[in-house]
Amino acid sequence: MRLTRYFLPVLREVPAEAQITSHKLMLRAGMIKQAVSGIYSWMPLGLKVLQNIEGIVIEEQERAGHLPLLMPTIQPASLWQKSGRYDDYGEEMLRIRDRHNRDLLYGPTNEELITEIFSSHVKSYRDLPLTLFHIQWKFRDEMRPRFGVMRGREFLMKDGYNFDITMDDAIHSYNRHLVSYLKTYERLGLKAIPMRADTGPIGGNYSHEFLVLADTGESEVFFDKRILDFNFGIANVNFDDIGECQKIVDEWTAPYARTDETHDPEAFDRVVPKEFQGVSRAIEVGQIFYFGTKYSKPMGAHVTDSEGKQVPVHMGSHGIGVSRLVGAIIEAFHDDKGIKWPISVAPFKVGIVNTVMGDQETCEVCEKIYSELTTTNFSPLYDDREERAGSKFTTMELIGIPWRITVGPRGLKKGIVELTDRHSGESREIPTDNIVSLIKELT
RNA sequence: CGGGGCGUAGCGCAGCCUGGUAGCGCAACAGUUUUGGGAACUGUAGGUCGUUGGUUCAAAUCCAAUCGCCCCGACCA
Fold this sequence. Notes:
The chain is α+β, with helices and mostly antiparallel strands. Helix content is about 35%, strand content about 30%.
């Protein structure tokens, strides 16, 4: 992409509406624009990051054997009246009435809808286990939206639902999700700690939240610091292997890690030696639940078991806050110059800075590198504006491009271009002819 | 929903107390000189001062209502 042809409305000054770092940087980098409190437009750069995250989430879900579908944002009120949540959910639910005076709502979550889909099509235990998920915009009319996309009213969320014939099977589904989430967050570059959680309005009796430590987080968490050394690794997991999944879950949920909702100070002192006791703020980026037959019973989600009896299915639900993750990643990766995207979610992996647009050789070399990287699918961002070098460096750093290639007459005299790592800030000189192959190795 | 703050050009702000020609910086546009860490100069364009009503000869400024945004709390991916 040529910057002169791109839409990147960066701001030199921070709009007064922003308070926390990620929100400020997202506005300054031209990623989002607020439409109204808690509701945002995603500009091209922001959308790229959002879609990169979405892509990783989808890949890891499918790898674990979960099936994508897409449910609508607007749902009939009647379904929620059936489950009993229409009145329970309260003011947070955005209620709508259509021209026929039918009561509708903008979905804050999808348990009712998915259960209805399930019960109208799945009749036999032989069709289980089944896990369906989608990534769709949700709306929760929060009393007080804040922190940009971290607590918006409209937000993009991956939500998944598992259906199993027995509790044991459902626990395996739970474990499978926990493991796939560990892998997902690791690919996003994040250290997300599974913590024992409260089940809240979703209900049920078994739940973990995934939290990313950050000063600006809304939760207070208490944990054994040794869990920070855990690495999931890229190891291939057999998600059908009950024992293997259970082992990983046991390992990751053994250390004390709880949010303020479930924190037990006595147990904390008893189980975790003083020097390993960690207390921090954290951002919640996902949660998984097992809730048994809470929805399947009232919604009539029954299947015929092997003995011919009608039994309600055991269910669980699982969510990842996709749009919130954009903010959470920035909270985890930034410095005073701007964002430092992990390579896996970066909107562009490589930036090319032409330091002197008036210099013919510089332009030729830039064009050559640009076209070679473009044809090999590396999606570089080429800053071809008539700006001074300093301004271009500042922009690349602000928007967080992991690798920057600097091309100018000064280097070309020596036959080199400069390669700068956004994360370490280190630069090295690379012979002009080697830069493209080196980038391929690095990204 | 309780408490507080703020709405003036795309962004950041001053002007309001003490009513009388709407201003500054950045961004934008044109030109010239520049060209490796947010360039300089000259010029240009951009505003029904959130909205409505009131007071007044006269309202960005005073009064009232209303809408919106932000912060602190109680609730939440």
